[in-house]
Design a protein that fits this description.
Length: 388
């Protein structure tokens, strides 16, 4: 078996879109005006916290694939004012979201118990509001959402090798800005964070044997396994990882933007930022490299995402251990690519409909569990009833 990233082909049912003149199809599909389609044709469950569970119409996997979106489209009309990361979500909403995550992951492990047969992953990506506003194809939905995905490892093994230079794959690997210039600084900074339920994991244990990914990313093993996700303390640790990443990202790009800039406001870990970053020559030298390139290369400068952009992931490795990792989201926008899985979606209604009954049954079962835990009310569509 040759190790390397895989490109898996996933069929989908073409979505009829009546795109207004002057809008690109992906802009309309991701627009708040089109969220009615998300609810009425693909919605599974909604709760008073405005968390919507839905089937992915353009999915990553037809084995199991669903998302939760924090639908603030009717509460916050300014797309740039909406939460795009967990730290911006109200605590009561985040608590409900954590419980939904825990139940979904528990179900995925129960339904797909063998790590040799299935790859399980879930996570979130902050990308929408952090894209340069002038970039083509910027998603306009700009709302935080989670992914819950299962892949068949035999299908992945049989899939074609992906181009290792695919820009979405370089996002978290050896070409990454953080990893290439500041690998030791990055890891040393994360090592200062106090974590109760997570312990650092060596790369050789965190990588999937099939793909060789994640590449170069800090990874942490969840001590106690999946059951630890039932503890509020785990989710506090999960947020600490994100807060640490945000501090690192903001501190770095403030130095890129302005030489010898002061520490950004509202830093979560000011002592660590001063001690490990703002007096570190490698950190500041890397900022100088990026700053000088921005000055002479306007195209490169426009591609930078100046606000914290990340992918944070929980996944099950080959040994059945549960792992947390995080990456800056500088190029790619698919969470699967952190694990070396590139998804090529192809329109093929007939192929999709062969997998649809089993997929929907799994989605309805996890919905039943969420309803039973008082985490929302079911939604009926033309594909499934509202009754649980």
């Amino acid at each position: 078996m040759q190790q390397g990233p895989r490109e898996i082909v996933t069929p989908f049912r073409p979505i009829p879109l009546d795109v207004p003149e002057g809008m690109a199809p992906n802009e309309f599909f991701n627009s708040t005006e089109n969220l009615n389609d998300l609810v009425h044709n693909n919605g599974l469950l909604i709760n008073p916290e405005n968390l919507l569970l839905y089937r992915k119409a353009l999915g990553h996997s037809n084995l199991f694939d669903t998302s939760i979106i924090y639908n603030t489209s009717k509460l916050i009309l300014n797309p740039l004012g909406r939460p795009v990361r967990r730290t911006q979500v109200p605590e009561n909403v985040r608590n409900v979201w954590n419980r939904m995550n825990q139940i979904l992951i528990e179900y995925m492990e129960e339904a797909f118990p063998n790590p040799e047969d299935h790859l399980i992953l879930c996570g979130e990506a902050s990308l929408d509001a952090t894209w340069p506003l002038t970039s083509p194809g910027v998603p306009s939905i700009r709302m935080l959402h989670n992914h819950f995905i299962v892949f068949d490892k035999k299908e992945l093994e049989q899939a074609a090798l992906a181009d290792p230079d695919n820009p979405n794959l370089t996002d978290g690997g050896q070409h990454s800005l953080f990893q290439h210039h500041m690998k030791e600084v990055y890891r040393a900074f994360f090592a200062t964070l106090e974590l109760k339920h997570l312990k650092p994991m060596p790369s050789e244990e965190s990588q999937l044997q099939l793909t060789g990914y994640p590449q170069g990313l800090p990874c942490w093993e969840i001590e106690g396994g999946r059951a630890t996700l039932e503890r509020p303390g785990f989710w506090a640790d999960y947020d600490v990882i994100l807060k640490g990443f945000i501090d690192f990202y903001r501190s770095f790009f403030s130095q890129v933007s302005t030489r010898n800039a002061p520490m950004p406001r509202d830093i979560y870990f000011p002592d660590q930022v001063i001690d490990k970053l703002l007096f570190n020559n490698d950190f500041l030298a890397a900022a100088k490299i990026v700053r000088e390139r921005c000055i002479r290369d306007p195209k490169y400068a426009n591609s930078i995402r100046w606000q914290p952009a990340f992918k944070q992931l929980i996944y099950r490795n080959d040994a059945g251990k549960w792992v947390v990792t995080i990456s800056q989201n500088s190029i790619g926008n698919a969470i699967t690519e952190l694990l070396g899985v590139v998804v090529k979606r192809v329109p093929d209604a007939e192929a999709y409909e062969k997998t649809e009954p089993a997929l929907i049954e799994r989605l309805l079962e996890v919905r039943r569990r969420l309803v039973r835990a008082d985490l929302g009310e079911p939604i009926g569509t033309c594909y499934w009833p509202a009754e649980v």
